[in-house]
Amino acid sequence: MPRQGVSLPAMPTQPEAQPGEDPPMRLLLVEDDPILGGGLRDFLVSDGYAIDWCVSLAQAKSLISEPYDALLVDWNLPDGSGVDWLKSLRGKGLAIPALVLTARDLLSDRIQGLDSGADDFLVKPFAPEELSARLRAISRRIFGSAQRKAFGPVEVDLNAKAVWLDGLPVELTAREWAIWEALVLRAGRIVSKSELELLVLGFDSELMSNSIEVHIFKLRSKLRKTSIETIRGLGYRIPAA
């Protein structure tokens, strides 16, 4: 069930990842204007993103522990400044890419937003297509840098979709790869079972309740038990590279 006060797309509109494709970026949209927020949510879902939409900082703060790939934050919100909140997140070491949405168009405002930790700045009104293009640029920075990573004896090349253990190639199924890639892209962060289910939903909309645990078990048998940590009651994590 959606959290109270948070608008989420219905499950049938969740973008589906096909075998071999990257999982959708998961976004947190913080926008109090119901028309703009709803329009952006619908457009971004249709463009292949997974999105949670909230209308206040209080709601955003209750969701920020989720493993989002990027934040879309309005500057002026009913209960405070989105830019000040973003600055506080940076002060806590949270490095999730963030794009500030605002009607402010002065150079000094842009400088303030960027200095507060925004990765990009979009002035209202704007075309949804431009927002999507800026998100693609963020995605390239997230998913396109340092594609070959090492996690102890395990190496992974995200471009080639290849994995090695002690220098020897390891074959993964499409679902195993989707789960492993999701964890690699969020290395050092806890990813909940429900989040992993969301990321691999495109493979089968009727995943069995224990499907994630089964695939985690298989991944550990191929990549060693210590490759994936279980954080009891919270989810799974691989150590940062």
Kindly describe this structure.
The protein has helices at residues 34-46, 57-63, 82-91, 107-115, 128-143, 174-185, 193-199, 211-223; strands at residues 6-7, 26-30, 50-54, 70-74, 76-77, 80-81, 98-102, 120-123, 148-151, 154-157, 162-165, 168-170, 229-231, 235-237. The chain has 241 residues and is of the alpha/beta class. It starts with 5 loop residues before the first strand and ends with a strand. It folds into two domains: 6-143, Rossmann fold; 148-237, Winged helix-like DNA-binding domain superfamily/Winged helix DNA-binding domain (Arc Repressor Mutant, subunit A, Orthogonal Bundle), CATH 1.10.10. The longest helix has 16 residues, at 128-143.
Give the key terms.
36% helix, 21% strand, Rossmann fold, 241 residues, 6-stranded mixed sheet, single chain, 4-stranded antiparallel sheet, Arc Repressor Mutant, subunit A, 2 domains, elongated, alpha/beta, disordered N terminus
CATH class of the largest domain: Alpha Beta
Whole-number radius of gyration?
Answer: 18 Å
Secondary structure tally, helices:
8
Strand content range: 15-25%
CATH overall fold name of the largest domain: Rossmann fold
Q: Roughly how many Å apart are the termini?
A: 35 Å
State the gist of this model:
This protein has helices spanning 34-46, 57-63, 82-91, 107-115, 128-143, 174-185, 193-199, 211-223; strands spanning 6-7, 26-30, 50-54, 70-74, 76-77, 80-81, 98-102, 120-123, 148-151, 154-157, 162-165, 168-170, 229-231, 235-237.
